[in-house]
Specification:
Shape: elongated
Number of helices: 7
Strand order of the largest sheet: 1-2-3-4
Largest sheet: 4 strands, antiparallel
Length: 206
């Protein structure tokens, strides 16, 4: 799954508005989500320290950086992703972590977040996940993806087995050549030169 700005905005919009949340690493300050503007693609936040408040905004540009930098089931450091956001990074992090898809995790002794869309938790809660569990989820997702890929080509394999001649018909751009390439690729071990080749050498034979 690929993270998008619109998907992030939908996640933010589920979080309770005008509710104080602790930082991921708790301190004296709290964070509030004020509003989510989907048309302008921005999120308004507020840092609360005692009686003092300071407004902050996650801009369209920042949302785009997040969406392009975060991979499914991979731990990331908000400090590394948003290098130029100064002390607002912890404010952003506190709200991101309260969405249903994001978890807190620890790499070494450093706090990270992880996007796990296949394992949603209750909104507004800060939930921690271990690196071991992340790895298990990632491996399980890969196995399901591999199975789906195999099922996609099963009708063609069945047709070839029943009669060793198969005619693929369709207008240009519908994926006829891709089907043949992927069937040819399936004859090779993953990681080999021919498996990685955009056009395996047995392509013409298939």
């Amino acid at each position: 799954m690929t993270l998008t700005v619109d998907y992030l905005l939908d996640l933010f919009d589920e979080v309770a508005k005008n509710t104080e949340f602790d930082y991921v690493k708790p301190g004296t300050s709290k964070v509030k989500l004020l509003s989510v503007n989907k048309s302008m693609k921005s999120v308004s936040l507020q840092r609360v320290t005692g009686r003092e408040t300071e407004n902050a905004k996650i801009s369209r540009e920042t949302l785009s950086i997040l969406a392009n930098s975060i991979s499914e089931n991979e731990p990331f450091s908000i400090e590394s992703v948003l290098k130029g956001s100064g002390n607002k990074r912890s404010v952003y992090e506190a709200i991101i972590a309260r969405t249903s898809d994001f978890y807190k995790c620890t790499v070494g002794r450093i706090k990270h977040l992880a996007w796990v869309p296949s394992l949603k938790h209750s909104v507004n809660e800060l939930v921690e996940i271990s690196l071991e569990d992340l790895k298990k989820i990632s491996n399980s997702n890969k196995a399901r993806a591999s199975l789906r890929e195999q099922e996609k080509y099963r009708p063609y394999i069945t047709a070839i087995k029943s009669k060793p001649f198969l005619l693929l018909a369709g207008i240009s751009g519908t994926g006829k050549s891709r089907i043949v390439r992927e069937l040819a690729r399936a004859c090779w071990e993953k990681g080999t030169k021919e498996y990685k080749n955009p056009k395996p050498k047995n392509f013409e034979m298939v």
